[in-house]
Amino acid sequence: MERRKFLAAAGIAPIGMTFSKHLPNSMDYKDTPSELFDPWLEINTKNLAWNVSQVRKRVNNRPIMAVIKCNAYGHGLIGTAKVLEKQNIQQFAVVKVQEALLLRDNGIKGTIVNFGSFSQQEAEQIVQKNISQSVFSETVEIFAKAARKLNKRAKVHIKVDTGLGRVGVPYYYAMSFIEKVASMPEIAIEGIFTTLTEQLDFDKIQVERLVKICDEAKKRGISVGIRHAASSAAVSNFPGSFLDMVRPGNCLYGLEKLPNLELKPTMSLKTRVLYVKNMRPGETVAYHRREKIEKDTLMATLPLGYFDGYPQNGVNKAEVLIQGQRWPMVVYMSANHVTVNITGSKGIKIGDEVVLFGTQQSDEISIGDVAKWGDSSVYKVAIKMNTLLPRIYI
Length: 394
What we know:
- This protein is of the alpha/beta class.
- It has a domain at about 45-255: Alpha-Beta Barrel (TIM Barrel), CATH 3.20.20.10.
- The chain contains twelve helices and 21 strands.
- Strands 1, 11, 12, 15, 16, 17, 18, 19, 20 and 21 form a ten-stranded mixed sheet that branches. Strands 2, 3, 4, 5, 6, 7, 8, 9 and 10 form a nine-stranded parallel sheet that branches. A two-stranded antiparallel ribbon has the order 13-14.
- The chain is elongated.
């Protein structure tokens, strides 16, 4: 690929050039996988749409707030949001102000809710860009001040801690906080929500607490807007949590198999063979001569390393697919390279496609396999995929 074209696609402008709306994971990326050697991610938009349909079926067509935090779980923030918009998803949740602003600045028109923290300066940006904000403490006053300054009405979702114990106004203080927010003329309450522990017996108590608060607010003449609690696990196993809207994240991407949902994986990680070499007995591989070759060995080097997000400790357990067959990763992974033992192969050459996770011919390596080899989880493997990896939506 021509260098400037790559830098533009990666969102890195060379000196003298600007690319105001190019993002490392945007759908502006025009190149096909056949032009790439360095690792890339393929996002299967058909499977993403399928997973949305399965969630809708499960929740009887309730509205969906798609959780696209952490770069859409590694799938690419802007590109994923645009695919979901085409599936009539109109609510998006993130946990960083920067992600919320990127969504709005790249043409996402629906409701964007930032569940994370914000500074005074960011509060003004949030209000200016018509982004909704989670509130649960006295910082709501910063938000109200920003709205007054801009002569706008700010939208909020009140976060109630019903038992998870991280953030949120404690449920036993929630009513007084709701009354305080409702009394602020600069603030519009758009919704109220909680985060479940994913321990089903206790989740039921959490939902009861949230519903009780909402009922009490209604008695006092306060509208708390849309009630939401159900993340992916609750969508799968707890219909009582569906309320007015559901808030799935990883199930949209098919990262895990969940009961009552027929999901398909959406992400594949691929690269190409960078080099093929015969190694003789006595030669060594990697820094500090980490591995000594004991017999004639055919090695393939891949331009992939832990910088790209692949779990380093998966080597010597992990496999890759080349020409439809599995080959073991061996020795050691550096920031940018790893070796594969292809002894016994026929015709593997520089430029052959390599699948780290995904399907090739009749075989598949799942992201779950990679997580197992790397002593990790599918969630961690997905979100740690480097933002500089091109995301190609197919």
